[in-house]
Amino acid sequence: MKLRVGAFLEPTSLLQQRPTALFGRGSPLLLANMTAASEDAIIRRKLLVEGESGLDDRRFGILLKDYLRWATSDETPEANDAACQTILEKILQCENAMDQALLIQLMNMEQSNRYSELLEEIETARIDITNQRERLKTARVIRKNRQEYHNLAKIVQEYPERQESLRKLQKMRTELNNLENTNKMYDERISLRKKQFHLFLVALRDLQKLVEQDDPIVDLDSQKNAGVDEAMDTS
């Protein structure tokens, strides 16, 4: 809030036209005003015009002393006008100081709001970074799973489809059954040949025994030829 001059001092026209009875030395109105000022009002005015360095507080004290000196003085109108002008200039300086303090306060409030917004933005950014990290972890897992899926897909593509595999399996089973039947047939044939060969060996052995039991038959022509050969040898 901007404190104007009229909040604690009279306007210039009233100061220049003050009656001596009101503002003379020992005036009851002046004494009543001075005694009626409470400590809260003084502290409030002090907080309004006090700066960081304390110069405004001293300036306000000097202004108050000048005002009291001017209000209780019995000088000439020219001197009173000059003193009044000096007081007004000091009041203007106090107002400027108050305006400056107000601007500084507004600037501090704006900076505080800006800092609050920055803190909110930082917190939002931190939450966003945390979410992005979680999304990055999830994306890495998804990428790993996709890579494994592609590798498995390449391996699976190297093999035929299920229907074709079943068809080949059925064909191989049929061929296996045929081979088993053929093998069984050859086993039966081999078994038959073994039995036949065994019978042949038995018959051959019996025939050999019969041949061995028969008497030897002498060939006459062979004997005659043998005698001729002996005669030729002796001659």
TrEMBL record:
Subcellular location: Nucleus
InterPro entries according to UniProt: THOC7/Mft1
Entry keywords, A to Z: Coiled coil, Nucleus
One Gene Ontology cellular component annotation held by this UniProt entry: THO complex part of transcription export complex
Matches recorded under Pfam families: THOC7 (PF05615)
Coiled coil spans: 108-189
UniProt record, GO biological process: mRNA processing
Superkingdom of origin: Eukaryota
Keyword Nucleus belongs to the record: yes
Primary localisation category: nucleus
Full protein name: Tho complex subunit 7
Species of origin: Echinococcus granulosus
Gene designation: EGR_05340
